[in-house]
Every structure is written in structure tokens, then in C-alpha cells.
Amino acid sequence: MEGVSPEQPSRIGLADYRPTSADLRELGRLALPVGLAQVGLMTMGLVDTVMVGRVSPVDLAAVAIGHLYFFGVAVVGMGILFSLDPVISQAVGADDRVGIARGVQRGLVLATGLSLVAMAFMVPVGPVLTFLQQPPEVVPIATQYVHGLLPAVFPFYVFVVLRQSLQAMGRLRAIVIAVVAANVLNGFLNWVFIFGNLGAPAMGAVGSAWVTSVARWFTTLALLGLAWPYLVSSLRPLRREALAKRPMVQLLRVGGPVGAQQWLEVGVFAAAGLLMGWMGTIALAGHQVALQMAALTFMVPLGVAQATSVLVGQAVGRGDAHSARRATGAGLLTGVGFMAATAVMFLAVPDLLSRAFSDDPPVIASAALLLPIAGVFQVFDGLQVVAAGALRGVGDTRVPMIMNLVGFWLVGLPVSLWLGFGLGWGPPGVWWGLAIGIGVVAVLLSLRVRKRLGSTLQRLVIHEDHS
Predict the structure, then answer these.
(1) Could you say which of 197, 205, 279, 399 has the lowest number of CB atoms within 10 Å?
(2) What is the dihedral of CA 48, 180, 73, 235, to 10 degrees?
(3) What pLDDT does 462 receive?
């Protein structure tokens, strides 16, 4: 490992994380396009929900449970591919072009293998949902929905590799253009295949899944074409060492905990969706509406977290621990500030926001009960995701995974069960449990940031297999 900073932890205080105006500008330069891309990706799912919500509550519930199942499987591979954040960003900071190329090509190899594994887990969705006692009228549609998303898995993972690589390089315009164009295509094709326009069959929720698969392929191919001048030196020539076992195992050791951490977070919301399914179709549909709104606003601090991870990684790569800490402070200030503003909106006009997704009065009422609770946990959600991004930038992934396990699964989910079913609070009780879990994770990760970035920072070195 390569040392970066010899400071003793006792000498590092909160003032060392205070960003300068230059730090905030640098974060904004990177986070704005990254955040726009994140919002754009989320908007595709948001548009699907809004349009399917006009078909029927059953179709909306099928999208809810089908999307949770798909993403609950796919997020593990996505998290593993986030191991590219410290590897490539630190290589960029160190001006290690060979290291960048090896990272990109290994990411594509991982994406291929992860796609096969993820699709294998998605095939038996019907029996799994039936075993989990989801509403019988929802399961067949949700099954077809997930199967319609199978072709989207490979381009989804390849897009993650290309996006993480370009973010680390500071080449962001192509990402935004590709995502915006994909949103236009997705909206038009949804109009055609969800409602049966232009002579197409009216496919409802299932049609939105096939459209999403088409849009995913379009996004990835468009990004590859637009960013080719920046990627070509990393993609050609093909490097045999990209297939070497030892470096790949090291990447998995870094990315595996990130994948588990992502699954623990997404999985607890998926578990909450299953609990809603036990409460009925209306509860599940209302949960989907509120979750889509919370997820949409979450995309901004998620983009800030990715930008923070890149800036911290670059600083570590060039041996500048002071900049790494200030970048962390800038990310936390920006992410938490944005989520505080959205919390006010969720608390103030939940009915108005709910009506944008459905015209069914029971679904609107169900969602309006949950959105104010989302407003309460918004600030903690922004804090925990940016803190995790900063830790990922220094290659710290195992301890954050354990903290997610404790907060979400050992605290949040049991409280959801107790409040929702034990005390009879119903859907709001489930969401209050989620809020408490997010709060615990935010506190734990904040303490970890202070400890980890207050110690000696080292570049993550991938040991090449030269045998």
C-alpha cells in the first residue's frame, strides 16, 4: 500500500472537513452532471410508474413488486462494480493510464459474469413471489414484468462500468446526453406499448418492462458511441491481464462488501414492499408511489455521493489527504442540504404529489400517509449515502457493510414489523421502522468517516499477476 498522509488521528478535527468555496465548486462541477444523469435514470422508472398507474392499481402493484425483485437482484452486481470507483479514480489521480485501462477492462469482464448470475436469479420470480404470499392477482403480471426486464441486465451492468469510468475521468457530458435521449425514447415507447397506440397491443405493466429493456440497450450503446474518444485508450488494446485471477479476486474483495451493502439497503425496502403486499394491493400501490418520490429525490445525493467518491479517490491517488477531507465535507454539506429542502416538500404537500402518480383515491390516500414519513428520513438518507461514497473513495467497504446490516436489518426491519403488525399501525408503521433504520445507519457511517479519514490514507493497489 502507498502511504498518503502521516497525520495522527488526534490532530484531525471537524475543521479539517470544512470545504472552501473552491472545493464546493469542484464538487458542483462533477456532481451536477452526475446528479442529472442519476435523476434521468430514475425518471425512466418514474415515468413507467406514472403511466402504468393510469392502467389499474393491479398493474401499478405489479410494477412495484416486480421492480423491487429485479433491483433487489441487480443491485448486488451494481455494488460490486462500484469497486471501480477507488481503483479508477485513484489511478486518475496518480496519472496511471495503464491502471485505468486495466480497471475498465476488468469491469467489463465482471459485468459479463454478473449478468449471467443475475438473470439466473430472476427466472424463478413467479414461484418466489407466490411463496412470499404476494397478492394472487399481482403475481402473474409481476412475473411477466421481471421476465421482460431480463434483456436489460447486461446493458445495465455495462452502463455502470462505463459511467463509473467516465466519472472518474471527469468526462460527463456523454452520460447526460445518453440518459436524456433514452428518457425521450422510453416515454414515447411507453405511450405506444402500455396503452396500445399506433396499432400496438395494449400491454400495460408488461409493456413498460420491454420498453425499459430497449431503453437500457439504447442508453449503453449511445454512451459508448458518444464517449468513444475518451474510452478508446482504455478499451484498446485488449489486455490479457484483465482476465488474471488475482487482481479480479482483489476487486471482488473491495466490491463484494459494496454489493452486499447496496443489497442490504435496497433489500430492506424490498422487504417493506413484501410486507405491504401482505396488507393488500392498495397498500402495495401506495407504497410504490411514495417510494418512487423518495427514490427520485434520493438520486441527487446519490450523484453527490458518487462525485464525492471520485474526488476523494483522486485526492488519495495524488497523495493529498487534506483535499480528501474537504471533498468529504463538501459532499456531506451538499447532500444533506438538498435532502432537507425536499423534506419540506414531502411534509407540506403529500396529497398533491401523490395525485401525480395515480387517479385512484384509495391509492392516493395510502401514498399521502407515507410521504411525510419519507420527509422525516430524507436528511438521514442524504447523510448516509454521501458518507458511504466518501468511504468508498478510500477503499473502505467492509465496515460500512456491517453498519448497514446493523441499521437496516437488525434495527429497521424488526421495528417495521413491530410497528406495522404488532402495534397495528399498518403501512405508516412499516415506514417509521425504515426511518429509524436509516437514522441508525447515518449515525454509524458518520462516525466511521471521521475515524477512517482522520487516519493515514493509502492508495488501493491492485497486485498484478505476472505469472
Answers:
(1) 197
(2) 160
(3) 60
